Amino acid sequence: MANDTPNENASAGHKLGQSIGDWFEECFVLPLLQQVAEKLRLYLDHRFRTRKARGEKILWKDEEGNIVDYDFVMELEGSEDEIGIPVAFFECFWRRGSRHSKDKARDDSGKLAPMKLVHPTARFLGIIAAGDFTQPARQLILSRDIDLFYVPKEKVIAAFSALKMQMDYPDRASEAEKQDLAQRFLQSLTEKMRSKAAGKLRNLLGKAAINTYLDRVRAVLGATPQEIRFLARHYSAPRIFATISAASAFLKKPDFDFRNPTETYVYQITYSNGTEFERVVDSLDYLRQLHEQAEKLASHIASL
Q1: Low-confidence ranges of the chain (pLDDT < 50)
Q2: 255 contact partners, CB below 8 Å, separation of at least 6
C-alpha cells in the first residue's frame, strides 16, 4: 500500500515519502489500472472512491478467514451496491531507499498469494512498485508467481524535475534541509502539478510499457480452463472434464457414487498457461458456487 496520509509528528523525510506514495497511487497507479479495467469491462475497487457495498477499506478474507486490506481489486459483475467476483488483486508502493526491500517484497507478496487459494477467478496478482527496490526483492516477487510493474526511482525524480520540482535529497542531508525541501515540494504539489507529474512519468515509461502491462493482465485472465476435476475426498476416482460446459452439466446432477453425508470435495482446474487452482470444500453447494464463478469469468473473457 502507498503511504498513509502525512501526520504532523512525522519527520520531514517521512512526510515527503508519504506524499509521493499517495501521489503515485492516485495519479499513476489508479489511472493505469482503470484503463486495464475498462478494456476488460471489469469493476475497479480502490480507496479513492466511496462504495455502498463496503466500508472504508477494501477487505477480503484469505484461506484461513483472516481479513486482509488491499489497495486495488478488479471484480467481475461488481457495482457500487454489490461486491463482485474478484479476478485480480494489487498492491502498490513508493520506496525512496532500498533498505528492507526484501521484507517489503515478502510482506506484499504474502498478502496477495493466498487469494489464488481462495478464489478460482483470482487469476492475476500484481505489485506496482516505484523507487529504489532491489533486484533480489523484485526476484522474490516474481518467484512467487506475482506480476511486477516496476518504475525506477530515477524516472520518478525525472518526472518532477521536468516541472522544476525537487523531491529527493542526499542521504546525509540534515533534518533542517529535509524540512526545507519537503516544504517547498508540498507547496508546489497542487492538483495541477500532481496530474502533470503523472503525465511526465507515463511519457518517460512509454506507451509500450503501458500496453504491455494491459496485455499481461489480459493474457493471465484469459487463460482458459483445459481440465476440470471434481473429487469426493473418500472416493478415489475423480470426475474429469475437458470443458467448462461439460463440468457444469455434471454439477446439475452429480454422481460421485458414495453415500457418506459428511463427504468433502476437491475442486481442481488446470489452465492453458499451466497454472492450477485447487480448493477443498465441504458441500456440493460451495463446489457449484466456485465453478459458477470460474464459468462466468471464462465466458466474460471470451466475449471481449
Answers
A1: 4-9
A2: none
- Give me the helix-helix angle, 175-188 and 12-23, nearest 10°: 30
Sign of the dihedral through C-alpha 41, 86, 117, 241 = negative
Give the pLDDT score at 8.
Answer: 45
The span from the CA of 64 to the CA of 17, in Å, is: 33
HSE-up of 72 (CA within 13 Å, CB side)?
A: 27
Judged by DSSP in three states, 197 sits in helix
DSSP 148: E
Give the strand pairing for 85-95 and 124-131: parallel
| Adjacency order of strands within the sheet including 265-271 | 239-241, 225-232, 265-271, 276-281
User: For residue 236, what are the CA distances in angstroms to 122, 132, 181, 270?
Assistant: 28, 51, 68, 19
